[in-house]
C-alpha cells in the first residue's frame, strides 16, 4: 500500500508539473485545433472523392481527425515527453539521483507519465474535441458505455506509449546522445500511429502490419472504439498484450543498463 | 533533542551514546566497520575515436585499490585533486556503481547488490545535482520523500520541522525549486536527504558555489546532526575549511589511491611542510645563512626563512639573534592549503613514475614492491597513515 501511495504522489506531481505551464497548454490547444481544421478539410475532400475509404464514412473520418488531435499530446505523438528528460538525465549523470532512491525507475517514470497524460487529456484533449464537435458533424456515440470503453482504450494506449518511449530513452545509457534515436521513434510513431491517415486506409500488407504494431494501440484503437468500428474487449486485449510485452522488455533493458553501464559525471 | 531523537539509527538501543562517547567506545564490529572498503577498485573503459571508424580503448583506474573503514558516528572528510576518484567512491558507496574489484560494505550491506535496501539507511547529497522536483514547490519534494521512504507521519513532521528551522527553509517551502538560488537549493537538498533518518550521510561537494554565510550554516548543521543523532558523515570537498570545521578525520586520495588517512593536523608532518620565520633586521643585509633554514625572500631589511615544520624555532632564532642585528621577528605556521598543494604535486609526480612502470609492462608485483620502496623512502611520518590504510 505504501508503494501505491508513493506512485500516486509521483503521478500527482507529474500532473501538477504540466499544469504549471498554462501558456504552453493554451498554445498547444490552439495548434491542435488549427491542425484539426486543416486535416478535417483535407479529409472532407478525400472522402468526397472516395467515400467509405478504409471502411469509415465521412462523419467517422472526421471524428478520427479530432480524436487524433485530442490524443496528440496525451500519447506524445508530436513533442517530446519524459523521454527527452530521462535521456538528458542519463547523459548528464543526474540519473544517479534517481538510482540511489528506494523506488523503481520504470514505475516511477510510468507514474509521472500517467499524471502527465491525465493532465494532457483534460488540458489538451477536451478542448479540440469539443471544438471539432461544434464545427463538424461527428460520429459520436450516445451510449455512455462506449465513452467509458474509449477512456479505457486511451488509458491502455498511454501505457503502451510510455513503454515504447521508456525503451528508447534507456538507449541513452549506451548511445549517450539519444537525439537520433528519439527522432527515429518520433517519425515511426507519427506514421504508424495513424496520425496522418487512419491505419485502415493503408493498403495491403503494409496495412496488415501497421495494424499489428504497438503504435496502433495509441490512436487507432481508441478512435475505433469510439466510432464503433472495433470490439472493445478485443481492442483492450490487443493493447494490454503490447503494454505487458513492452514493459517487460523495458525492464530487461533497464536491468542491463543499470548493471553494466556507467553513471556519467563527477 | 535528546536521546530519543536518534530515531531509527539501528537496533542497538544505545544510539544515544554516540554523541557522548563517539565511536571509540564501541566493541561491536559492525559499528567500528560501519563503512568498509577492502582493496576496492573501479576501472572505466574509455573508448576514444582515433580516426575514421577506429577506436582506441583505454582503461581509467578511477579508484585503485582503496581500503579504509569508517566507524559509526564518525565525520570524515574525503579530499583530493580533480579527477582523484572521490565522486566515483561515493557512487560505489551508494550502490549506483559496481566496483570492478575488491569488497565494499556499508552497514553490512553490499551496496550495488542491495541498492534499494541500503537506500533506506543512507542519505546522499550531490552538490552538483538535485533530488528536488524542479518544477514544483519544495514542499512537494518532501512529501514525495515521505512516501518514498515510508517515513511514519509523526517522524516526518518532526524531521521536517527541524530541518526547516535549522536550514531556514520556512519561506522557501512554497517556492518552485527552479526559482531557488544555488545556496537555497543546496539547503533544500540536504533537508531532503535527511527526512528518513539515514544512518550515514554522503555529501559530494555540498558547499560548492555557496557564499560564506551559507557555508557556515551548512557546516554548523552537519556538526549538530552528528552530535545529536550520531549520523555518520562522509563528505568530499575542495574547501579545506569544510574539513577543518566539520571533520576530525581526513582522507586524501589521489589518482585513485589513498595517500593519507588521519587527523587534519597530521598532514603537516606528512607533507614535508615548512614553517616560515620572518625577521626584520636593522638594515639591508645579504641573505642570512642559518642551515637548515633557507632564505626564500628578501625585501629590504626584511627576510623570509623557511625551515622544516618538525624543527624547533628556538635554536634557530637564538643563532640568528647572536649573529645578526635583529629588530623583530615572527613565525608563520604552514598553510594547510599549501601543504595539500605540495602533497598533490608530489603524488602527481609519483603517479607519472608508476604510469611509466605500467607502460614498460612490469609485473604487478614489481609495481607493488616499488610502491613499498617508495613508502620506505618517504618521510617516516607517512607510515602511520599508511598503516591505517590496511584493514585488519
Ligand atoms: N563515466 C566515466 N567514464 C569514464 N571515466 C570516468 C567516468 N567517471 C569518472 N571517470 C574518470 O575517473 C576519474 C575519477 O573521477 P571522479 O569523478 O571520481 O573524480 P573526483 O575526485 O570526484 O574529481 P572532482 O574533484 O573533479 O570532482 C577521472 O579520471 C575521470 O575521468
Ligand atoms: Mg567529484
UniProtKB/TrEMBL annotation, chain A:
Membrane spanning stretches: 21-44, 64-82, 121-140, 146-174, 236-253
Superkingdom, natural source: Bacteria
Keyword Transmembrane among record annotations: yes
Keywords on record: Membrane, Transmembrane, Transmembrane helix
Keyword Ubl conjugation: no
InterPro entries attached to this UniProt entry: ABC-2_transporter-like
One Pfam family linked to the record: ABC2_membrane_6
PANTHER family: INTEGRAL MEMBRANE PROTEIN, SLR1174 PROTEIN-RELATED
Name of this protein: ABC transporter permease
